[in-house]
Structure formats: structure tokens, C-alpha cells
Amino acid sequence: VQLQASGGGLVQSGGSLRLSCTASGTFHSVNRMGWYRQFPGQRRELVATIGNDGKTNYAYSVKGRFTISRDNAKNSVFLQMNMLKPDDAAVYYCYGDIIEYYYAVDYWGKGTLVTVSS
Predict the structure, then answer these.
(1) pLDDT at 102 over 90
(2) Backbone torsion region of residue 25, taken as left when φ is above 0, otherwise alpha when ψ lies between -120 and 50, otherwise beta
(3) What is the dihedral of CA 98, 22, 69, 97, to 10 degrees?
(4) 89 and 116 Cβ atoms separated by less than 8 Å
(5) Strand-pair partners of 71
(6) How far is the C-alpha of 9 from the C-alpha of 61, rounded, in Å?
(7) How far apart are CA 19 and CA 103, in angstroms?
(8) Distance (Å, rounded) from C-alpha 67 to C-alpha 48?
(9) 40-to-35, 52, 82 alpha-carbon distances in Å
(10) How far is CA 110 from CA 34, 38, 65, 102, 107, in A?
(11) Could you give the angle at the alpha carbon of 59 between the alpha carbons of 27 and 110, nearest 5°?
(12) CA-CA distance, 101 to 81, in Å (whole number)?
């Protein structure tokens, strides 16, 4: 199983980016998916998650600016990031709680860099 993320890059403050991530390989289904980010020298932190029922959870710092969504048929999750700030610059990691036949396993993508210029 692999999670392949894309969509990071350089954007000016106030701009937008859309991150995408798709799970591929052999598995039964995908439960919760989401995005985490990591600032230099810090631990990875939650940005947003979404269940397969569509229920979402956001970090307070991104509420109202970021929107998480998913396409269950394509095992994909997306993060629309608007009104980006320099404080949002980080490596963003895709996450998936994937059911491999009889048990769930947490998978992570390799990370995609988001840079926000002031």
C-alpha cells in the first residue's frame, strides 16, 4: 500500500494551493484519511482529517481557510488551502487508516513541501 501526495509548491501569502493524495495497492477499504504537517524541528501535527462518512476535523489554526474532502471511489483525499500564511509553510503529509483485510494499518505519504512567501 502506498499513499502518493502531490500539489505542494511555492505560493504568495494570501494565495491558495490544493493538495491531493491517493492510496494505491491491495487493501480492503480506507477509513479515516487526512493531512498532517511538520515544521522544522517540531513534531508532526494534525491539519485536518475526514472519515469515510464525510465527517471532518480541523486544527483550530486552519478552520475557515482549509477544506478537506475525499473521493471514496478513488481512495483519494484533498486539501484545499486558501488564505495561506507564512506560518502555514511546512511539509504536509497525507495519512490513511487502511483496512488490510482483517486489521487497520496507518500509512503515511512521503510529504509535500508547502512554501508561503510573505
Answers:
(1) no
(2) left
(3) 10
(4) yes
(5) 76
(6) 20
(7) 28
(8) 8
(9) 17, 31, 22
(10) 14, 12, 24, 25, 10
(11) 40
(12) 33
- State the DSSP code for 71: E
pLDDT tens-digit series, residues 76-88: 999 999 999 999 9
Q: Which residue has the cell 499513499?
A: 3
- Average predicted confidence (pLDDT) for the chain: 96
Strand order in the sheet with 2-6: 2-6, 17-24, 76-81, 66-71
What 3-state DSSP class applies to 63?
coil
Instruction: Quote the CA–CA distance of 30 and 46 in Å, as a whole number.
Output: 18
Torsion, Cα of 76, 24, 49, 101 (10° steps): 120
CB atoms within 10 A of CB 10: 12
Burial of 99 from C-beta contacts in 10 A (0-12 / 13-18 / 19+): middle
Look at the chain and count its residues: 118
Residue pair 33/47 in contact (Cβ under 8 Å)? The answer is no
Fill in the amino acid letter for 100: E
